[in-house]
Amino acid sequence: AALQALKRKKRYEKQLSQIDGTLSTIEFQREALENSHTNTEVLKNMGYAAQAMKKVHENMDLNKIDDLMQDITEQQDVAQEISDAISNRAGFGEEFDEDELMAELEELEQEELNKGMRDVRLPSVPSTSLPSRPGKLLACRSTFLRIKAGSSTRKRAEDEDEMKKLAAWAS
What we know:
mainly alpha, flat, Snf7_fam
């Protein structure tokens, strides 16, 4: 009985495989028919469109279209010439040489710059000589920077004493 059941199972699996293949073939055929129908409809509509365009273009002549486009271009040129004539200033001797105007502008700018430079005052050069030893200069600078940075009151007093000593040494 078990052997018979296995044989039936194998037979049913084979039938199922055949049915599945048949269904796949039918599905493929259905899709092909749908595509053929769609293609036929598209082709028919393209034919209608071609006939409609032919009817529309029956009354059109390419030579007439070219002539019309040339007429339009000529009229646009005439309109542009009229516009240019109206927008140009009447010739009252107001034509200026662009190079002369630029040269005059540069000259005015240079005069303004020179005038501004005359008013600049440079600081006078110190008359005292600098210390000869660089080590003392560095000490002076570091002391000055500490005072300028604003340290504590006691430190500031010490720094002021050092500055007095340095001033006495520099004199």
